[in-house]
Amino acid sequence: MKGNRIIMFAVMKRLSCVRGVLNSGLLTVAYSLVLVSVSLAASSTNYAVKWSQAGADGGEGQQSTNYRFSSTIGQDIAGRGDSANYRANLGYRQALGAVTPGPTHTPAPPTPTPPCPIPFVDINGNIFYGAVTYLYCNHAVNGTDASHYSPAGTSTRGQFAKVVVLGFGLTFYTPSGGSQDFHDVPPGYFAYLYIETGFHAGILSGFDAGSCARHGVQYPCYLPNVPITRGQLTKLVVGAAHYPLFTPAGGQSTFSDVPPNNVFFISIETAHHKGVINGYPDHTFRPNNNIRRDEMAQIVFKGVTTP
């Protein structure tokens, strides 16, 4: 009993020196209590300390006449306790013992700085931001208006002809005498120069007579205003990059919807082998889907920058 009185006297004497916050000795005790997962308490007539982990029997905020201690565990803010004269705070410590940390919040990476001023307000945070800005700064793509790229919009065969010719830096070509190779691409058409250049380079091609007839166009035709598909674009990029054609061992297809008899099989497998394209999480490529403008930029960008 005498020993207990001596200890209590020492504690009370030390606490009487604190002005505004609990002393470091008391906080050390509180810190040690956090290492366990049950409620713990210590009290006397004038002092009370209690800590409890979430899911135990509660009891944060214990107090006496003059002193109070509170703690919080599993949160990212400090617990706080007040009395008339004293206050103590204790926050969650992720590194403590076996306490399970809460979820971490990883900030999104900053948008990379483009090599030139970008006027588009609709591509910030887009997964293909880098590809769009690269091609824009190299004068290979434009927006749908002065401030929008419209990444989810489709791209036509005429628009793509311009992107692939400028992106790969092909030498411009026009037929002698201002003639035209396709009935539906006259010299006054905006993409005339690019379609003729791509066709002359062996990258672009037109449609067969049956397809031209179905669209009401005389053969030979290019159908420049028809949306380009993922399969068509991939084939054209592989041709523009001059990649050696690749077929998987055993002729097995990478994508479930691009079997070996698909017209774009070799081009898609070649582009995938080079790391130029990826499919969807369900292991499809969806070659007949119209390609989005941001996807177009990404595939052309990868083709331009991947040897």
Strand arrangement, major sheet? 1-2
Give the CA-CA distance, first to last residue.
85 Å
Count of β-strands: 6
Radius of gyration: 35 Å
List the helices and strands in order: HHEEEEEEHHHHHHH
Uncertain spans, ≥5 residues at pLDDT below 50?
Answer: 2-41, 51-62, 67-80, 89-106
Which structural category fits the helices and strands? mainly alpha
Q: What is the count of DSSP helices, taking H or I runs of 4+ residues?
A: 9
Q: What is the overall shape?
A: globular
Number of domains: 2
Q: Quote the average pLDDT.
A: 78
User: What is the helix content?
Assistant: 25-40%
Please give the largest β-sheet: 2 strands, antiparallel
Q: In percent, how much strand structure appears in the residues?
A: 5-15%
Describe this structure in words.
By secondary structure, the protein is mainly alpha-helical. It has two domains: 2-90, no CATH class; 129-305, no CATH class. Helix content is 30%, strand content 7%. The protein is built from nine helices and six strands; from the N terminus they run H-H-E-E-E-E-E-E-H-H-H-H-H-H-H. A hairpin with a 4-residue loop joins strand 3 (62-63) and strand 4. The longest helix is centred in the first third of the chain and has 14 residues, at 2-15. It starts with a helix and ends with a helix. The relative contact order is 0.09. Residues 2-41, 51-62, 67-80 and 89-106 have low confidence and may be disordered.
